[in-house]
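As a warm-up, study this chain.
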Amino acid sequence: MVRYSEELIEEIRNSNDIVDVISQYVILKRSGRNFFGLCPFHKEKSPSFSVSPDKQIFHCFGCGVGGNVIHFVSKIENIDFRETLELLANRANIPLPALDTSYQDNKKAMLKAKVYEINEIAAKFYHENLYKPTSKEAQEYIKKRKLDNRTLKSFLIGYSGTFDELYRVLKEKGFTEEEILASSLVNKADNGKFIDRFRRRLMIPIQDTTGRFIAFGGRVLDDSKPKYINSPENIVYSKGRNLFGLNIAKKGDTKKIIIVEGYMDAISLYQRGITNVVASLGTALTEQQGRLLRKNSEQVIIGYDADGAGQAATLRGLEILQNMGCDIRVLQIYGAKDPDEFIIKYGPERFQKCVDNAISLVEFKVKILKQDLNLENVNDKIKFLNEVAKILAKVDNNIEKEIYVDKISQEYKISKEAIYGEINKLTYRNNNDRKVLEKAPVKSFIKREENEKIDESIIKREKMVIYILLNYPEESYSALKDIITADDMKSKMNKEILTKIYEQYSKKNMGNILDLFTEEDSINYLSGIMADDFGVTDVAKCIEDLISTYNREKLTNRRNDILKQLESANLSAEDSRMLERELNEIILKLAKVKDSVKSLWKMGTNN
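Now compare it with the structure written out below.
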């Protein structure tokens, strides 16, 4: 359980502007007072993801997710509350005090700290081992790869020895067996003996963006298999959430980042002056890795191998990066199977030319499409142009689309009109499909007990009460608190929210209302109310209408109750007279209650 003070949490939140933070993950464009972009939490083509700089909240009107900057970072980085605060505090240069945690939380945190320490000791041990006379085999391999001492030091490249050398070093330094095994650097055999995972391999440490050692890759020095052994995922390492070499690339210019497949590709390019390079840790590019690239660069150049597997990986990576709104290019190299071989064979200047001439996503897709077709064959050419039209139909920028149409028209001798005709057919069909989807009912984020149906107009009215109280507390709280109570809320969610609002206002300490909720559904629901503007133009009139409406509804309900009681044959004459007097008073009050709410919304009361 995290026990940072509310004041510190507030300072961290206030020091991290939500627009600045989210802009590192999502391309945002201003529209009125808010910013909009494509939601990173579900696939969409039209931006429905809203960020409010005034309210410091985000909300997606498509999937319903929302919250403040802490909720966003926690969700997109898939980290817990404490880790989120640490990340945001570090971003804002706010020192954090020692944390009072539960035993289990503290034990896990201490184990993670020990594993980071073990990894750093191992990296330095392997590195020092590389220079020893007993490491001739590794030294010869280094010479063959033409890696200089600067590169070896930058990446802390090393060499693992035999059997249990690292295990013995770690035991001498006082680490427990549990801590050593948690690092995944040592395995325990069935006979109870401990043996190093990496033996007689070139060792490549993997660091996260902060420079902490999180894992290792070990390469054989000959042609035996497997060529690489990598650290398994563990308490500090998730391969899909990190990029090899990013901590080093960040020290230079990363307006452009080249992403390659393997460690040695990245190391070889760095050795020859191409320092803005990272590797994807042997996995297909993941969304988390895509966000790291989006966060740290303006343009991403994919430089995967030229073989079939490399091209398939490139296409997958392109789709992920495109969905995140990245400016993406594809490296084209000829005469070599991968960037490492190319730069050794032709040099850094020619490689840089390839980087500068990297092609767009559309050009790459067209190139792949051509590989399996004979364009001298009429049927193949028709198929090719139809598929090209599908690719171009997905290009949103009209100028970009026109340039591609013009180029394809000239290159393949077909009129622009014919190409546009096919594109327009596909666009019209897609728009119709989109219209059908837009007609689908809006997703509801209210938990309703026993499937109780609540009139949407009543839900909207209750949301309006919450919205007014949150945005105009000085004008609304004293006016509404005695007229509209939590018990007046038909929705369980609205009742819970209003209860917390009144509790906080009574303490004169509102703080951040979203912090009072831990359930994701509640946070999403409340952020949706906060993100809406409800079309309010006159706050005083809105408050007056709400008071009139709720007063009228209460009087009407009481009137109906009295009428039902008067129909009973068991009432005494005195009780009947009392009820009739009350009924007359209610009728007079109803006549005085203002009913001017219709201009704002349809109330849905039963009169």
